[in-house]
Design brief:
Blueprint lengths: L1 E3 L1 E4 L16 H14 L3 E4 L16 H14 L4 E4 L9 H10 L3 E5 L3 E3 L13 E3 L3 H14 L2 E6 L2 H12 L8 E6 L12 H6 L6 E6 L5 H10 L3 E4 L16 H14 L2 E3 L2 H7 L10
Parallel strand pairs: 1-12, 2-3, 2-11, 3-4, 4-5, 5-8, 8-9, 9-10, 10-11
Antiparallel strand pairs: 6-7
Helix pairs in contact: 1-2, 1-8, 2-3
Length: 292
């Protein structure tokens, strides 16, 4: 069986813990990470949340919060590969960069281009006020420079085909020098749909030798996309950031349940979960992290 790197996206950016089973505190994050780790995930994609009462639905860029959460997850999951989210609206990136410098993640999200982040309800009203998720080149460069400084692998988040093509330009221009790792984000309503038929087209635009995975956002429609990703040799990701629903339509109550379902699909396609050591090798990460 060929090896697949499995990522668990533990909690997301704004999901309300009062409504969904998303972890917030260091203890909750460590417990959910361990459940995912035991089920086959070797990478934990982590958003940090505010820790005050009633604030758990809000993001935090406090380095002390990031450090507590990172330490709890690393202690709970020996050898885990830590993947830090970085997404921010606007030009101020000091918060996520301060967290990168403090916790020194193995991987950090490098949102590779801008997107009108939109959703319309069935009655025609906006689900939220229209947002520009702005990632101009100067902002991307600040993140890439911080990742180079700390030794983090950039995971290039690509919301459409044009953004996929930008990654190659970042390499040609010298903005990034290193191994390219792509994340095709599919299922955001104003981005690429969660359609397995897109994958062969996207793969055609990868830099030679690149690694890639899919973030599939949605409900039952995402599971055929996961299967096709596994069949085509991509790495896999799921978690309560990306979906609340298992393949049979039941609502998941833990990240471990979602990872179990994803690993079962991987095995049906002839793939086996990479160990932490194997995952580091496949992603061109150092065998020994040296992280604090």
């Amino acid at each position: 069986m060929s090896k697949v790197v499995v990522t668990c996206a533990l909690t997301g950016v704004l999901t309300d813990p009062a409504q969904h089973h998303v972890p917030v505190t260091p203890e909750q994050m460590a417990r959910e990470a361990r459940a995912a780790f035991d089920s086959g995930a070797t990478v934990m994609h982590v958003h940090f949340r505010q820790q005050g009462p009633g604030k758990g639905h809000l993001p935090s860029w406090e380095p002390a919060v990031a450090s507590e959460i990172a330490q709890a997850i690393r202690e709970s999951c020996p050898g885990v590969i830590f993947n830090q989210s970085t997404g921010t609206i606007g030009p101020d990136v000091s918060g996520p960069i301060a967290c990168i410098r403090t916790i020194r993640p193995d991987i950090a999200a490098a949102n590779a281009g801008s997107l009108n982040y939109l959703k319309v309800r069935s009655d025609g009203r906006w689900a939220w006020p229209p947002i520009l998720f702005d990632n101009p080149v100067e902002k991307v460069k600040q993140f890439l420079d911080a990742m180079a400084e700390t030794g983090a692998l950039p995971e290039f988040e690509c919301f459409d085909v044009g953004i996929v093509r930008c990654v190659e330009m970042y390499l040609r221009s010298g903005l990034y020098r290193g191994h390219p790792d792509y994340n095709f984000v599919m299922g955001v309503e104003s981005g690429m749909p969660a359609d397995p038929r897109l994958l062969p087209i996207l793969i055609e635009h990868l830099v030679e030798g690149a690694t890639w995975q899919v973030t599939a956002i949605g409900r039952q429609e995402i599971w055929p996309l996961h299967r096709r990703t596994a069949e085509l040799g991509g790495n896999l990701r799921t978690g309560l950031e990306d979906t609340f629903y298992l393949p049979d339509g039941r609502k998941a109550t833990s990240n471990g349940q979602l990872i179990e379902a994803l690993v079962a699909i991987a095995r049906q396609t002839g793939r086996e979960c990479a160990s932490p050591t194997e995952a580091r090798s496949l992603l061109h990460l150092p065998a020994v992290t040296g992280r604090a």
